[in-house]
Sequence to fold (434 residues):
Amino acid sequence: MSIDPNSPVPIYQQIAAYIRRAVAAGVYRPGEMIPSLRTLALELVVNPNTVQRAYEQLEREGLIHARKGRGMFVARDGPASAQSRSQAAVYSAFAQGIRAGQAANIAPERIRATFEKASQDVSTEVRSET
Amino acid sequence: MTTDSSSRLAIETVGLTKRFGDTLAVDDLTLRIPMGSVFGFIGPNGAGKSTTIKMLMGLLGKTAGQARVLGFDVAGRCEAVKDRVGYVPELHFVYRWMRVREVIYFCRSFYKTWNNDLCAELLGLFELDEHKKVKHLSKGMVAKLALLLAIAHEPELLILDEPTSGLDPIIREEFLDGVLRTICDRQKTVLFSSHTLSDVQRLADAVGIIHQGRLLANCPTEELLTGTKRIRAVLPDGCSPDKPPEGTIWQRFRRREWLLTVRGFSPATIEYLQTTYLVENIEVTDLGLEDVFKDYVRGRRASA
Fold:
Protein backbone atom coordinates (compact mmCIF):
# COMPACT_ATOMS: atom_id res chain seq x y z
CA MET A 1 0.00 0.00 0.00
CA SER A 2 1.11 3.54 -0.49
CA ILE A 3 -0.53 6.78 0.55
CA ASP A 4 -0.96 9.91 -1.50
CA PRO A 5 0.48 12.84 0.47
CA ASN A 6 -0.89 15.33 -2.07
CA SER A 7 -4.47 14.15 -1.76
CA PRO A 8 -7.07 16.34 -0.01
CA VAL A 9 -8.09 13.24 1.96
CA PRO A 10 -6.27 13.34 5.33
CA ILE A 11 -3.66 10.60 5.61
CA TYR A 12 -5.26 8.97 8.65
CA GLN A 13 -8.43 8.48 6.62
CA GLN A 14 -6.42 6.98 3.75
CA ILE A 15 -4.85 4.51 6.19
CA ALA A 16 -8.22 3.63 7.78
CA ALA A 17 -9.74 3.06 4.33
CA TYR A 18 -6.81 0.82 3.37
CA ILE A 19 -7.16 -1.37 6.48
CA ARG A 20 -10.93 -1.58 5.94
CA ARG A 21 -10.46 -2.74 2.36
CA ALA A 22 -7.77 -5.22 3.45
CA VAL A 23 -10.08 -6.69 6.12
CA ALA A 24 -13.07 -6.79 3.74
CA ALA A 25 -10.89 -8.53 1.13
CA GLY A 26 -9.59 -11.08 3.64
CA VAL A 27 -5.95 -9.98 3.86
CA TYR A 28 -6.33 -9.86 7.64
CA ARG A 29 -8.87 -12.33 9.03
CA PRO A 30 -10.83 -12.18 12.32
CA GLY A 31 -8.56 -12.85 15.30
CA GLU A 32 -5.41 -11.97 13.36
CA MET A 33 -3.09 -9.12 14.25
CA ILE A 34 -2.77 -6.10 11.95
CA PRO A 35 0.63 -4.33 11.53
CA SER A 36 1.95 -2.42 14.56
CA LEU A 37 2.01 1.38 14.60
CA ARG A 38 5.76 1.42 14.16
CA THR A 39 5.76 -1.07 11.27
CA LEU A 40 3.08 0.74 9.34
CA ALA A 41 4.51 4.23 10.10
CA LEU A 42 7.93 3.23 8.78
CA GLU A 43 6.49 1.38 5.80
CA LEU A 44 4.30 4.27 4.70
CA VAL A 45 6.72 6.99 5.89
CA VAL A 46 4.10 8.72 8.00
CA ASN A 47 3.92 9.98 11.56
CA PRO A 48 3.01 7.12 13.98
CA ASN A 49 0.48 9.47 15.62
CA THR A 50 -1.35 9.48 12.27
CA VAL A 51 -1.43 5.68 12.14
CA GLN A 52 -2.68 5.67 15.71
CA ARG A 53 -5.49 8.06 14.80
CA ALA A 54 -6.52 5.69 12.01
CA TYR A 55 -6.45 2.71 14.38
CA GLU A 56 -8.46 4.60 16.99
CA GLN A 57 -11.13 5.30 14.43
CA LEU A 58 -11.21 1.65 13.33
CA GLU A 59 -11.46 0.62 16.97
CA ARG A 60 -14.46 2.93 17.46
CA GLU A 61 -16.05 1.34 14.40
CA GLY A 62 -15.56 -2.08 15.97
CA LEU A 63 -13.37 -3.33 13.13
CA ILE A 64 -10.37 -4.00 15.36
CA HIS A 65 -9.73 -4.20 19.08
CA ALA A 66 -6.64 -3.81 21.22
CA ARG A 67 -5.19 -6.61 23.29
CA LYS A 68 -3.15 -5.18 26.12
CA GLY A 69 0.53 -5.00 25.30
CA ARG A 70 0.16 -7.14 22.19
CA GLY A 71 -1.36 -5.06 19.44
CA MET A 72 -4.46 -4.62 17.36
CA PHE A 73 -6.58 -7.58 16.27
CA VAL A 74 -9.37 -7.94 13.74
CA ALA A 75 -12.77 -8.30 15.41
CA ARG A 76 -14.98 -11.32 14.80
CA ASP A 77 -17.48 -9.38 12.70
CA GLY A 78 -14.69 -7.22 11.24
CA PRO A 79 -15.25 -8.12 7.58
CA ALA A 80 -18.98 -7.31 7.75
CA SER A 81 -18.34 -4.01 9.50
CA ALA A 82 -15.59 -3.16 6.99
CA GLN A 83 -17.98 -3.81 4.13
CA SER A 84 -20.67 -1.52 5.48
CA ARG A 85 -18.09 1.22 6.09
CA SER A 86 -16.63 0.77 2.62
CA GLN A 87 -20.15 1.33 1.38
CA ALA A 88 -19.95 4.83 2.89
CA ALA A 89 -16.85 5.45 0.78
CA VAL A 90 -18.72 4.26 -2.29
CA TYR A 91 -21.54 6.64 -1.39
CA SER A 92 -19.22 9.64 -1.17
CA ALA A 93 -17.59 8.71 -4.50
CA PHE A 94 -21.05 8.66 -6.12
CA ALA A 95 -21.99 11.90 -4.37
CA GLN A 96 -18.91 13.53 -5.82
CA GLY A 97 -19.88 12.34 -9.30
CA ILE A 98 -23.39 13.70 -8.88
CA ARG A 99 -22.02 17.05 -7.71
CA ALA A 100 -19.76 17.21 -10.76
CA GLY A 101 -22.84 16.56 -12.92
CA GLN A 102 -24.86 19.27 -11.18
CA ALA A 103 -21.98 21.73 -11.54
CA ALA A 104 -22.12 21.13 -15.30
CA ASN A 105 -25.93 21.63 -15.25
CA ILE A 106 -26.63 18.05 -16.32
CA ALA A 107 -30.24 16.96 -15.67
CA PRO A 108 -30.77 14.39 -12.83
CA GLU A 109 -32.18 11.72 -15.17
CA ARG A 110 -29.12 11.96 -17.40
CA ILE A 111 -26.85 11.62 -14.35
CA ARG A 112 -28.80 8.49 -13.37
CA ALA A 113 -28.47 7.06 -16.89
CA THR A 114 -24.72 7.72 -16.75
CA PHE A 115 -24.55 5.82 -13.47
CA GLU A 116 -26.34 2.83 -15.01
CA LYS A 117 -23.99 2.83 -17.95
CA ALA A 118 -20.88 3.02 -15.72
CA SER A 119 -22.29 0.23 -13.57
CA GLN A 120 -22.78 -1.97 -16.65
CA ASP A 121 -19.37 -1.17 -18.12
CA VAL A 122 -17.57 -1.96 -14.86
CA SER A 123 -19.31 -5.31 -14.38
CA THR A 124 -18.40 -6.41 -17.93
CA GLU A 125 -14.80 -5.34 -17.15
CA VAL A 126 -14.71 -7.67 -14.14
CA ARG A 127 -16.26 -10.53 -16.12
CA SER A 128 -13.80 -10.24 -18.98
CA GLU A 129 -10.87 -10.22 -16.54
CA THR A 130 -11.84 -13.49 -14.88
CA MET B 1 -1.19 10.97 24.64
CA THR B 2 -2.32 11.77 28.17
CA THR B 3 -3.83 15.11 29.04
CA ASP B 4 -0.84 15.76 31.25
CA SER B 5 1.74 15.48 28.45
CA SER B 6 -0.42 17.38 25.96
CA SER B 7 -0.72 20.28 28.37
CA ARG B 8 3.08 20.52 28.54
CA LEU B 9 4.62 22.60 25.83
CA ALA B 10 7.92 21.90 24.11
CA ILE B 11 7.94 25.31 22.47
CA GLU B 12 5.99 28.38 23.41
CA THR B 13 6.36 31.85 21.94
CA VAL B 14 4.30 34.92 22.76
CA GLY B 15 4.50 37.98 20.51
CA LEU B 16 7.94 36.94 19.30
CA THR B 17 9.30 39.63 17.01
CA LYS B 18 12.53 40.18 15.08
CA ARG B 19 13.37 43.34 13.21
CA PHE B 20 16.35 43.77 10.88
CA GLY B 21 16.52 47.55 10.31
CA ASP B 22 13.23 48.45 8.62
CA THR B 23 12.29 44.87 7.89
CA LEU B 24 10.03 42.91 10.19
CA ALA B 25 11.37 39.39 9.71
CA VAL B 26 9.14 37.88 12.39
CA ASP B 27 6.04 39.78 13.41
CA ASP B 28 4.26 39.08 16.71
CA LEU B 29 4.51 35.30 16.47
CA THR B 30 2.56 33.28 19.01
CA LEU B 31 3.11 29.56 18.80
CA ARG B 32 2.45 26.63 21.12
CA ILE B 33 3.87 23.21 20.29
CA PRO B 34 2.88 20.42 22.72
CA MET B 35 5.35 17.74 23.80
CA GLY B 36 5.25 14.63 21.65
CA SER B 37 3.85 16.31 18.56
CA VAL B 38 5.32 17.00 15.13
CA PHE B 39 4.93 20.55 13.88
CA GLY B 40 5.44 21.48 10.22
CA PHE B 41 6.41 25.09 9.62
CA ILE B 42 5.73 26.19 6.04
CA GLY B 43 6.11 29.47 4.21
CA PRO B 44 7.68 30.95 1.07
CA ASN B 45 11.36 31.87 0.98
CA GLY B 46 12.10 34.77 3.31
CA ALA B 47 8.89 34.26 5.29
CA GLY B 48 10.71 34.17 8.64
CA LYS B 49 10.99 30.43 9.25
CA SER B 50 14.76 30.28 9.69
CA THR B 51 14.81 33.50 11.70
CA THR B 52 12.24 32.01 14.09
CA ILE B 53 14.20 28.78 14.39
CA LYS B 54 17.46 30.63 15.04
CA MET B 55 15.79 32.63 17.81
CA LEU B 56 14.48 29.40 19.35
CA MET B 57 17.98 27.95 19.18
CA GLY B 58 19.41 31.02 20.90
CA LEU B 59 21.55 31.81 17.85
CA LEU B 60 19.83 35.12 17.21
CA GLY B 61 18.52 37.72 19.67
CA LYS B 62 14.87 38.75 19.59
CA THR B 63 13.57 42.29 19.22
CA ALA B 64 10.49 41.73 21.37
CA GLY B 65 8.25 39.05 22.83
CA GLN B 66 8.99 35.82 24.62
CA ALA B 67 10.15 32.36 23.63
CA ARG B 68 10.49 29.30 25.80
CA VAL B 69 12.03 25.99 24.75
CA LEU B 70 11.39 22.98 27.01
CA GLY B 71 10.25 25.42 29.65
CA PHE B 72 13.38 27.59 29.56
CA ASP B 73 13.50 31.18 28.33
CA VAL B 74 15.73 31.29 25.24
CA ALA B 75 17.30 34.54 26.38
CA GLY B 76 18.89 33.13 29.51
CA ARG B 77 18.93 29.50 28.53
CA CYS B 78 21.05 27.27 30.67
CA GLU B 79 23.39 24.55 29.43
CA ALA B 80 21.01 21.80 30.56
CA VAL B 81 18.68 22.51 27.63
CA LYS B 82 21.41 21.98 25.05
CA ASP B 83 21.59 18.26 25.78
CA ARG B 84 17.85 17.96 25.29
CA VAL B 85 17.60 19.64 21.87
CA GLY B 86 18.83 18.38 18.49
CA TYR B 87 19.23 20.84 15.63
CA VAL B 88 19.82 20.43 11.92
CA PRO B 89 20.56 23.90 10.48
CA GLU B 90 19.59 24.99 6.99
CA LEU B 91 23.17 24.96 5.76
CA HIS B 92 24.67 21.71 6.83
CA PHE B 93 27.90 22.37 8.54
CA VAL B 94 31.44 23.32 8.25
CA TYR B 95 33.78 20.59 9.42
CA ARG B 96 34.55 19.82 5.82
CA TRP B 97 38.18 18.79 6.39
CA MET B 98 37.35 16.16 9.01
CA ARG B 99 36.55 12.52 8.46
CA VAL B 100 33.06 11.30 9.41
CA ARG B 101 34.51 9.40 12.38
CA GLU B 102 36.36 12.50 13.60
CA VAL B 103 33.26 14.69 13.36
CA ILE B 104 31.37 12.13 15.43
CA TYR B 105 34.10 12.00 18.11
CA PHE B 106 34.21 15.78 18.16
CA CYS B 107 30.45 16.27 18.52
CA ARG B 108 30.04 13.41 20.97
CA SER B 109 32.24 15.26 23.46
CA PHE B 110 29.63 18.03 23.79
CA TYR B 111 26.88 15.76 25.07
CA LYS B 112 26.54 13.79 28.28
CA THR B 113 23.68 11.78 26.79
CA TRP B 114 25.38 10.59 23.57
CA ASN B 115 24.24 7.05 22.70
CA ASN B 116 26.99 5.04 20.97
CA ASP B 117 24.67 2.18 20.03
CA LEU B 118 22.18 4.50 18.39
CA CYS B 119 25.03 6.27 16.60
CA ALA B 120 26.30 2.96 15.21
CA GLU B 121 22.77 1.96 14.19
CA LEU B 122 22.29 5.25 12.33
CA LEU B 123 25.67 4.96 10.59
CA GLY B 124 24.48 1.61 9.23
CA LEU B 125 21.00 2.81 8.38
CA PHE B 126 22.34 5.82 6.51
CA GLU B 127 25.17 3.83 4.88
CA LEU B 128 27.69 6.45 5.98
CA ASP B 129 31.37 5.61 5.52
CA GLU B 130 33.21 6.58 8.73
CA HIS B 131 36.53 6.98 6.94
CA LYS B 132 35.40 9.44 4.30
CA LYS B 133 36.11 13.13 4.59
CA VAL B 134 33.06 15.36 4.85
CA LYS B 135 34.12 17.35 1.78
CA HIS B 136 33.99 14.13 -0.27
CA LEU B 137 30.42 13.30 0.77
CA SER B 138 27.45 13.95 -1.49
CA LYS B 139 24.86 16.54 -0.44
CA GLY B 140 22.47 13.79 0.64
CA MET B 141 25.15 12.07 2.74
CA VAL B 142 26.02 15.37 4.46
CA ALA B 143 22.34 15.86 5.28
CA LYS B 144 22.16 12.38 6.80
CA LEU B 145 25.35 13.00 8.80
CA ALA B 146 23.84 16.26 10.11
CA LEU B 147 20.74 14.35 11.19
CA LEU B 148 22.84 11.67 12.89
CA LEU B 149 24.70 14.35 14.86
CA ALA B 150 21.40 15.94 15.85
CA ILE B 151 19.72 12.77 17.15
CA ALA B 152 22.51 10.53 18.49
CA HIS B 153 22.36 12.22 21.91
CA GLU B 154 18.66 11.32 22.09
CA PRO B 155 17.21 14.83 22.38
CA GLU B 156 13.62 15.36 23.52
CA LEU B 157 13.13 18.05 20.91
CA LEU B 158 14.36 17.92 17.34
CA ILE B 159 14.45 21.10 15.27
CA LEU B 160 15.05 20.77 11.53
CA ASP B 161 15.42 23.77 9.24
CA GLU B 162 14.43 22.74 5.70
CA PRO B 163 16.06 19.37 6.18
CA THR B 164 15.07 17.78 2.88
CA SER B 165 15.44 20.68 0.46
CA GLY B 166 17.59 19.78 -2.53
CA LEU B 167 17.70 16.07 -1.71
CA ASP B 168 16.71 13.42 -4.24
CA PRO B 169 13.60 11.32 -3.46
CA ILE B 170 15.56 8.27 -2.30
CA ILE B 171 17.77 10.19 0.15
CA ARG B 172 14.74 12.19 1.28
CA GLU B 173 12.91 9.03 2.20
CA GLU B 174 15.96 7.68 4.08
CA PHE B 175 16.22 10.97 5.92
CA LEU B 176 12.53 10.90 6.86
CA ASP B 177 12.95 7.28 7.91
CA GLY B 178 15.67 8.39 10.35
CA VAL B 179 13.42 11.12 11.75
CA LEU B 180 10.50 8.69 12.03
CA ARG B 181 12.53 6.13 13.93
CA THR B 182 13.30 8.74 16.58
CA ILE B 183 9.63 9.70 16.75
CA CYS B 184 8.42 6.09 16.84
CA ASP B 185 10.83 4.77 19.40
CA ARG B 186 11.08 7.70 21.74
CA GLN B 187 7.89 9.76 21.34
CA LYS B 188 9.80 12.93 20.57
CA THR B 189 8.74 16.42 19.68
CA VAL B 190 9.78 17.69 16.24
CA LEU B 191 9.65 21.15 14.68
CA PHE B 192 10.59 21.21 11.03
CA SER B 193 10.36 23.83 8.34
CA SER B 194 9.91 22.71 4.78
CA HIS B 195 8.93 23.59 1.24
CA THR B 196 8.17 19.97 0.47
CA LEU B 197 4.51 19.91 1.38
CA SER B 198 4.13 16.19 0.82
CA ASP B 199 6.71 15.64 3.59
CA VAL B 200 4.79 17.99 5.85
CA GLN B 201 1.59 16.10 5.19
CA ARG B 202 3.30 12.79 5.92
CA LEU B 203 4.89 13.85 9.20
CA ALA B 204 3.16 16.82 10.77
CA ASP B 205 0.41 16.60 13.39
CA ALA B 206 -0.05 20.34 13.08
CA VAL B 207 0.93 22.94 10.51
CA GLY B 208 1.84 26.60 10.78
CA ILE B 209 1.76 28.79 7.67
CA ILE B 210 3.99 31.84 7.90
CA HIS B 211 4.22 34.66 5.36
CA GLN B 212 6.05 37.97 5.68
CA GLY B 213 6.80 37.21 9.30
CA ARG B 214 3.16 36.64 10.25
CA LEU B 215 1.51 33.38 11.19
CA LEU B 216 -1.48 33.03 8.84
CA ALA B 217 -2.70 29.63 10.01
CA ASN B 218 -1.87 27.27 12.83
CA CYS B 219 -3.95 24.14 13.29
CA PRO B 220 -3.96 20.34 13.08
CA THR B 221 -3.01 19.16 9.57
CA GLU B 222 -6.27 17.30 8.97
CA GLU B 223 -8.34 20.26 10.14
CA LEU B 224 -6.55 22.48 7.64
CA LEU B 225 -7.42 20.00 4.88
CA THR B 226 -10.98 19.10 5.78
CA GLY B 227 -12.01 22.60 6.87
CA THR B 228 -10.70 24.44 3.81
CA LYS B 229 -12.76 24.24 0.62
CA ARG B 230 -12.71 25.79 -2.83
CA ILE B 231 -16.09 27.13 -3.93
CA ARG B 232 -17.00 27.96 -7.50
CA ALA B 233 -20.13 30.06 -7.75
CA VAL B 234 -21.60 31.21 -11.05
CA LEU B 235 -23.29 34.59 -10.66
CA PRO B 236 -25.85 36.19 -13.01
CA ASP B 237 -24.81 39.09 -15.25
CA GLY B 238 -24.34 42.40 -13.50
CA CYS B 239 -23.89 40.87 -10.09
CA SER B 240 -20.73 41.96 -8.31
CA PRO B 241 -19.37 39.88 -5.46
CA ASP B 242 -18.57 42.51 -2.85
CA LYS B 243 -19.26 40.60 0.37
CA PRO B 244 -17.31 37.33 0.50
CA PRO B 245 -18.39 34.86 3.21
CA GLU B 246 -16.64 34.66 6.54
CA GLY B 247 -13.34 32.80 6.44
CA THR B 248 -12.50 33.68 2.84
CA ILE B 249 -8.72 33.49 2.44
CA TRP B 250 -8.52 33.97 -1.32
CA GLN B 251 -10.95 34.93 -4.09
CA ARG B 252 -11.04 35.73 -7.79
CA PHE B 253 -13.90 36.90 -9.97
CA ARG B 254 -13.72 36.48 -13.73
CA ARG B 255 -16.64 36.63 -16.20
CA ARG B 256 -19.45 35.07 -14.18
CA GLU B 257 -17.20 32.76 -12.19
CA TRP B 258 -16.42 33.54 -8.57
CA LEU B 259 -13.73 31.31 -7.08
CA LEU B 260 -13.33 31.37 -3.31
CA THR B 261 -11.15 29.50 -0.89
CA VAL B 262 -12.80 29.45 2.51
CA ARG B 263 -11.52 28.18 5.83
CA GLY B 264 -13.86 26.86 8.48
CA PHE B 265 -16.25 25.82 5.70
CA SER B 266 -19.75 24.67 6.70
CA PRO B 267 -23.16 24.35 4.97
CA ALA B 268 -23.84 27.85 6.30
CA THR B 269 -21.20 29.15 3.86
CA ILE B 270 -23.25 27.87 0.91
CA GLU B 271 -26.49 29.13 2.45
CA TYR B 272 -24.95 32.58 2.87
CA LEU B 273 -23.86 32.70 -0.77
CA GLN B 274 -27.26 31.51 -2.02
CA THR B 275 -29.23 34.00 0.05
CA THR B 276 -26.89 36.97 -0.56
CA TYR B 277 -26.48 36.45 -4.31
CA LEU B 278 -28.61 34.92 -7.04
CA VAL B 279 -26.17 32.08 -7.46
CA GLU B 280 -26.91 30.13 -10.66
CA ASN B 281 -24.59 27.26 -9.96
CA ILE B 282 -22.35 26.29 -7.10
CA GLU B 283 -19.64 23.67 -6.72
CA VAL B 284 -17.53 22.76 -3.68
CA THR B 285 -14.23 20.89 -3.97
CA ASP B 286 -11.57 19.66 -1.54
CA LEU B 287 -8.04 21.00 -1.65
CA GLY B 288 -4.65 19.38 -1.09
CA LEU B 289 -2.15 20.96 1.28
CA GLU B 290 -0.27 22.57 -1.59
CA ASP B 291 -3.35 24.45 -2.83
CA VAL B 292 -4.34 25.46 0.69
CA PHE B 293 -0.84 26.82 1.28
CA LYS B 294 -0.77 28.71 -2.04
CA ASP B 295 -4.18 30.28 -1.42
CA TYR B 296 -3.17 31.51 2.03
CA VAL B 297 -0.10 33.19 0.56
CA ARG B 298 -1.81 34.50 -2.61
CA GLY B 299 -4.72 35.85 -0.58
CA ARG B 300 -2.34 37.65 1.72
CA ARG B 301 -0.45 39.18 -1.21
CA ALA B 302 -3.65 40.39 -2.86
CA SER B 303 -4.87 42.09 0.30
CA ALA B 304 -1.48 43.63 1.13
